[in-house]
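Fill-in record for Peptide deformylase.
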Amino acid sequence: MILPIILYGSKILRSKTHDIDAEDDFTELAANMALTLQKEQGCGLAGPQVAVLKNIFVIDTTSVNNDETAPVVKMYLNPEILEYSTEEYYYNEGCLSIPGIFENVIRPDKIAVRYRNENFDIREETLDGLVARIFQHEYDHLQGILFIDRLSSLRKRIIKSKLKQIARSSM
């Protein structure tokens, strides 16, 4: 089932999430989130973006994949970032909850992460490049942080009227 995307202006996007328990029915939720992500042709979708205040997000790099790496399609439950690299880079980010706005955001290039997979097993791995960036963007959603929060005050002022339009349309 395709889920409605929560737009900028909703208090849900500023809320912190809670851990998923093994008893939670996260399989159906993750499948619905993946379908929604595919329909919207995005590369990441977090619980708060579909009005679920749980620590879950899905990543699908199929729509942005280049020929150099295989696409990543994955569900992350109760994710954590354990370590950030010191090397950072800018990348033009967008967000399904903030349609039509794309801005350069600086983030670490490499991160060490821990999460639970679809079997609720704990996994640890090191992510880099685009997958690390998407993970950080979606992880921010679980903390109530949006990519626009990482912009300079000047860039925020420049996009302020667009943000107000999105917020008005979400009511």
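KEY FINDING: Strands lie at 44-46, 56-60, 73-84, 88-95, 98-108, 110-116, 122-128.
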